[in-house]
Amino acid sequence: MNLFRKLVLILILFLVGCSQPVEGQLEKAGLLLSAPIDDKGWNAKAYQGILNIQSKFGVQVFVKEDIKTETQIIEAVDEFSRNGVNLIFGHSHLYADYFMELKDKYPEMYFVSFNGEVDGDNITSLHFEGYAMGYFAGMLSSEMTSSNKIGVIAAFEFQPEVQGFKDGALYNKDNVEVFVEYVHNWVDETRAIDLFTEMEELGVDIYYPAGDGFHVAVIKEVKKSGLYAIGYVGDQIDLGETTVLTSTVQHVEKLYEFVAESLNNGTLSTGNKYFDFEDGVISLGTFSSEVPDDIRERIEKSIEVYIATGKLPHERED
């Protein structure tokens, strides 16, 4: 962790008095991250979420980065407990199993992880439904490709947005070819860029880098080559307005506030909870000016219908 980030994290602990506390069950909140906060995506949004909790509820918050091993997690949870934390976020699916083992030891704490399977009295796992966001990204990509070759560079096979991308693209244009490769790591930029180079040689002209630790690096390479990309997790239009056609955005920070509010008023439910477009925590980001108005409007209309009916375009046909 560099000196600047250390200072930022220390300052969090002393700025609590700047906001009026919201009375309720929330006392202090903690956040465990498996990677640094400055990834411009998944972890950065978690950091913003915990800061929003601090500001809105006037509670002290604690943040720990690069917590990945069993020993690190056990030590961090114990430290949080000694500091009076009663709401702890583990910002990855990897925390789910460890939290399941620890929750009974710390009944005074409420454990929250992401995209893992949990059950118990003081634990919840939040799941982003990735299939539909990938579907609409695939629809747009198939509309915008010149070579009829589009590609996904994903982290792991279990990501539902990958199949969604393929299905949306092929529904929209059945002669498009979808290339899919896996980095088998969330943050390996070198491997992801190597896969981009291989796809570029095959004529792929639109890329969906579905990995929160390497997506920015891939988009920068796409920009250098004068090709198109779909942003991931955050709205990446600022990486190149004529490069990033749109982004599949997960509004992670909204879920953090939802959890804190629910715990504070005693309505937070346990188990596995799923969220999609209709919950306001997934959306497409800003559209590039490269996208013709009629295509943008058709995608937006399809999303509106999906929110209203729960049906994707191929599911609405007789």
Automatic annotation (TrEMBL):
**Domain of life of the source:** Bacteria
Keyword Cell membrane assigned: yes
Sorted alphabetically, the keyword list is: Cell membrane, Lipoprotein, Membrane, Signal
Outline the extent of the ABC transporter substrate-binding protein PnrA-like domain: 27-314
Q: Where in the cell is it found?
A: Cell membrane
Q: Which Pfam families match?
A: Bmp (PF02608)
Q: Which Gene3D superfamilies is this protein grouped with?
A: 3.40.50.2300
Q: Can the keyword Lipoprotein be found in this entry's annotation? A: yes
Q: How does it sit in the membrane?
A: Lipid-anchor
What family, per the record?
Answer: Belongs to the BMP lipoprotein family.
Q: State the protein's name.
A: Transcriptional activator of comK protein
